[in-house]
Specification:
By secondary structure, this protein is mostly helical. The chain is built from seven helices and no strands.
Length: 181
Amino acid sequence: MAERLITPAEHVPEIIKPERRTEQRRPAAESAARQQERQAAAVEQARQAVAEHAAKTAEHAGALAPADDRPVRIDSAAKAWRMRQSMTRVQKRLTPAQKSLSDFIHQPLVRRVSEATAETVARPSGILGGGILAFLGSSAYLWFARAAGITYNYFGFFVFFIGGFLLGLVIEHALAALRHH
């Protein structure tokens, strides 16, 4: 029998042999290691750049800080200048009609009147008092007008609302005076 016995190592193709596989893995493992080293170096460079930038920023912030830690006072001239600067920047974006309305609204006299009325006119206690008294008073007046056979006068609602508004303001100020004593 002249047959030749095939050993398992001879039967396996060259590509699959274990010796070949480890030889093929070595370059891939070496390139992965080189890539990790390059990434680590890039990360280290980025850390150094961030540290340098942070140091420069800290130096710059230290140079801008006031000599003492007292709060800086802003006078009325600086506030007025900043207001004019802001108004100019915002009004550049407005249409001519909107700009003229903005100019009128932001006049000093109009601003003072607006702020003064905002503090007194639209008080929640006044509106609540006016609403409650207008509802109750006009309901009672309507019942009385039907019972007496007279016509209902709508002006009564406004009278009750104004009376309730004033009553609400008086009650609010009385309670505030009692709290302060």
